[in-house]
Amino acid sequence: NTLHHNNFWKVLNFPKKLEYKIDRIFLIIMNRIKKLFSDKRKNIVSIYFTAGFPQVNDTNTILNALQKHGADMVEIGMPYSDPLADGPLIQHSSMKALQNGMSIKLLFKQLNEFRNNSRLGVGGLPLILMGYLNPVLQYGIEKFCSDAHAAGIDGIILPDLPLHEYETEYKKVFEKYKLDFIFLITPETSEKRIRKIDTISKGFVYAVSSSSITGTDKDMSAQQKYFQRLENMKLKNPIMIGFGIKDNKTFSQACKHTSGAIIGTAYIKAIENSNDIDSGTEKFLNSILGATIAL
Predict the structure, then answer these.
(1) Residue 36 confidence class, pLDDT cut points 50, 70, 90
(2) Are strands 184-185 and 73-77 parallel, antiparallel or unpaired?
(3) How far is the C-alpha of 106 from the C-alpha of 55, rounded, in Å?
(4) Cα 238 to Cα 25, 42, 190, distances in angstroms
(5) Is there a contact between 227 and 243 (Cβ–Cβ < 8 Å)?
(6) Which residues contact 41 (CB under 8 A, 6 or more apart)?
(7) Cα–Cα distance for residue pair 183/206, rounded to 1 Å
C-alpha cells in the first residue's frame, strides 16, 4: 500500500512550496482519478452533491467534510432547471441552488478556493463535475474546460452529450485540458456499445444500476447478474455503480463485482436534514462504510 498523502510529506519533511510543485508535476503524469484507482481497487465511495445546496456557500464546507470523513471521490452537480435523469430530491436541490444564486462561474470560484486552501492541497480529492450540456454550451465549451482545469477538476459527466457528438466535436477540447470524460451505461446497453464507451471513456465507466431516475429504491441483489456481466467483460476502465445506493448493504452489493459506488440522493437527504454539515457527513459516511457485509 502507498503511504497516505499527508504522512508522505511528513516523512520527507519538504517545505510546503516544494510539496505543491512536486504535486503539480506528479499530477501531470497521473491525474487524481487514475491515482485513486491505482491506489485503491475496491470499495471506493464517491459522493454526489448539488453545488449551492443547502446554501449557496456550502460547497467548500461540504468538500472539506467529505475529504475529512473518508470519501474517496466527489461528484459536484451543476444545478440545472430541467434535470432529466434526476429524481425529485435532486431536482429539488437543483432548483433551490439556482434560487440561491449558484452558477457555473461562482462554482469555479469556490473550487479554486478549495484547491488553494484544502489541507491536502492540490493532491486531495478527485473532483468531477456532473451536469447537462446546455448550461455548458451557454458558458462556452472551451472556456468551461479551461476554467474547470484551472479549478482543479479531474473529470466531467454530461449524460445528455451523445457519444458520436463527443467523439467528433468535443473530445479534443476535453483532452486538451486533461479532463477525463465519463460515460454512463445501463443494464440495457449492448456489449458492443459498452466496449465502445470503454474505449473512449477515461477515468471510469459509470454503470447506472437501472434505467430509471436517481433516488428510486432499487433491489441491488436483483442487479447482481448485471454487475457480474460487467466484471466478466474485463473492461480497461474501472466500473462505478450509481443510482439506488443508500446504505452499507446496497454499497456492499454494488462493490461485490465493481470498484465502488456513487451515492447522491441519500447524502443530499442527510445534509438537508442535518443542522451541521460536518457532523452530518461524518454520520452518513460512517453508516455507508461500516463493517463490510458478508455477501
Answers:
(1) very high
(2) unpaired
(3) 13
(4) 24, 10, 18
(5) no
(6) 238, 259
(7) 6
Query: CA 102, CA 51: separation in Å to the nearest integer?
Result: 7
Amino acid identity at 292: T
d(CA 255, CA 253): 5
CA–CA distance, 213 with 190 (Å, rounded to integer): 20
Joined grid coordinates for residue 145: 474546460
Residue appearing with cell numbers 432548483 = 95
CB atoms within 10 A of CB 73: 26
| Per-position b or e across 260-273, b if 16+ CB within 10 A of its CB | bbbbbbbbbbbbee
The SS3 call for residue 181 is strand
Instruction: Say which amino acid occupies 22.
Output: I
Tens of pLDDT, residues 242-276: 988 999 999 999 999 999 999 999 999 999 988 99
Question: Exposed, middle or buried, 48 (CB in 10 Å: 0-12/13-18/19+)?
Answer: buried
Q: What is the number of residues in the chain?
A: 295
Please say whether the beta carbons of 54 and 35 come within 8 A.
no
What are the residue numbers of the active site?
75, 86
What is the number of helices (H) and of strands (E) in the chain?
15, 9
- The model carries a pTM of 0.86
